[in-house]
Amino acid sequence: MYHYTQEQLESMKKVEATRASRRENLHARMTAEEKDAVLAEFHPDYITSAYEELKVGKNKGGKVLHELADLLQGHSRVADMDIDLTKIDYDVDVLVIGGGGAGSSAAIEANERGANVMIVTKLRLGDANTAMAEGGIQAADKPNDSPATHYLDALGGGHFKNKPELLYKLVNEAPEAILWLNNLGVMFDKEADGTMVTTHGGGTSRKRMHACRDYSGSEIMRTLRDEVFNRGITVVDFTAAIELIKDTDGKVAGAVLLNMETQEIMIARAKTVVIATGGAGRLHYQGFPTSNHYGATADGLVLGYRAGAKLLYPETLQYHPTGAAEPTQIYGALVTEKVRSLGAQLVNKDGEAFVYSLETRDVTASSIIRECRERGNGIKTTDGEGVWLDTPLIDIINGEGTIEKRIPAMLRMFGKYGIDIRKEPILIYPTLHYQNGGLDIGANGMTCVENLYVAGEAVGGIHGTNRLMGNSLLDIIVFGRNAGQQAGEKYKSVELKELTLDHVKAFEKELEEAGISTEVRSPKLLPDYRRKAN
Amino acid sequence: MEKMVNVYLFGKRYQVPESLTIMKAMEYAGYQLVRGCGCRNGFCGACATIYRIKGQQELKTCLACQQQVEEGMYVATLPFFPLVKQVYDVNVIKPTQQIMMQLYPEIYSCIGCNACTKSCTQELNVMQYIAYAQRGEYEKAAEESFDCVMCGVCSSRCPAGISHPQVALLTRRLTGKYLAPKSEHLINRVAEIDAGDCKAALEAIMNTPLEEQKNLYNHREIEK
Prior knowledge:
The complex is a heterodimer. Chain A is an alpha/beta fold. Chain A has 16 helices and 23 strands. In chain A, the strands form 6 sheets. In chain A, strands 4, 5, 9, 10, 11, 12, 20 and 22 form an 8-stranded mixed sheet that branches. In chain A, strands 14, 15, 16, 17 and 18 form a 5-stranded antiparallel sheet that branches. In chain A, a hairpin with a 4-residue loop joins strand 10 and strand 11 (252-259). By secondary structure, chain B is an alpha+beta fold. At the A-B interface, helix 5, helix 6, helix 7, helix 8 and helix 14 of A face helix 1, helix 7, helix 8, helix 9 and helix 10 of B.
């Protein structure tokens, strides 16, 4: 059970005292200039000391966070291994690396096209950020909305840096993605007449957030996983891809696999490869806690980069405004944006709302950091500080029972520690949530390396430098399916030559020539949380 | 110095800070987890765990990432449980009572012991949703089971060998696909896009100069 500190209790009283008046008087939205100012001063992406220049690879000269640079410029795990590429353990048309929403969607679509598909995943199928997405999925399917409106929202939210052909695809194929999921049996929240229940997310101009309570990603993931199994698609679990294999023409042709439990090495030959390895929250950039899955360690970026693919916007991360700040047991866990969509406000220690609750995520997170660091209006917590998210407003605004019905996971998560979010506000602070950037692809889902496709969070460019809520569940479906469709056709014309790992040797040489001396082996595969000081 | 408690991981005693979850306690003790660890946030069901507090009779169940340690806690994790998952073509099956009889007939062997409900890490009324599934009331079963994370603890406690999470998943897919009302506005919009009706407006925005795009964005009308 969580016990509030005296300071927290006193502050909570102030939040209660101002609740009624705050309900009526919403905090003003920021102007474009105010947003730029708070971002420049307080967003973690602007802290130059956290970054370094890459010395090798396609993005040489570009900047990434230290933690990612270490991995991108680390040694290959196969560098010292004697690997026999003629001993093929798996021989497939489409190899999907990663078993989340994007990987599963890709596998289903490639299977649909008759390809022999195999998914390898370092944990279980469905162990992914997808399953943890709570709030919802965007699609412009209401009469007052349009793909063009969706496009403008995502473009502005992404600071106009989104790759146009990718964003076009994202918004234009969004309604079809929802219909596809619905036809697979995903249970979206609907009115009695079938109308989708939709809400706002930060930075949306129309209510286009579709949800499955606050288990949106979980519901999507378990349905996709079930479909993968129903189709008899080969799933090799607890097995990581630790290096891509090419053929002598320089085209991607498979991967070296590692059994996570027995350490056995296996070889998968494949005519096409889809990287769907997800994000990087478990690298804990700049010391942030994360809302991400245990396996979110940027593996796909490392594999792709070493194989010669390019990264786009790898320097931009998303810090979700509302990670749990108390109790310490769930520090950094996601408190879905849907909580604010339903009316909860961000409030400082004096009970004052200090930002409009549904600004874009980067702006909201920066405002919270400013409120704590510069203005001294944060509340002390076990692990640092935080501000209030005034959840009781939700039932006041929408009627009693709303929290129970619409955000049961949140009610449960805090309820386990004796905190009733219907009656008490909760303490939150930004948490590392999403990798905005990633591997650069074209509209066909392929990188500049022939036959290497990417889908999901490992892709860069769809969301510019800041993703809107609900556009990630959307992109894993749209671009996961796309990658599966493309790879599921492309393989038919692929003639593989002899397999080789020469590109890995070349990369090692490049490291040496750049004077990089490191002990790091990458990809990382899993974080190490064991206590060091024994 | 934080207060320490004794926990017994697979029977072996470790002293760990009392603020930790079971999962973090295992890591504190030195385990590098591969099995039995997933989202670490209560959504994936990877870390199903059974424990008993020393001196108490009751066996308790939880997700290791969501449960704080206690003094005298004896912990066994359940990283995998052999659930039965029947395969089917979702486009061929229909939401009739027969489908459950064909795919998961063992649910009719339920003896009503309620061990599933008592053990649910999400505190769902598991036996109730199985009862709904038996009667072909799939929407109710889907509703009742919606927050299931498929950790499998219920099945581990079931004397009838029922794979409750898989039964629940089937009822949800039947509900989502066949029983829930269709969304006309969604079907219409997909048809409009397929007919190319949305293309011109999208291309117009794409081809707008950057400064004008910014202007459009900053002055766009926002639905109340």
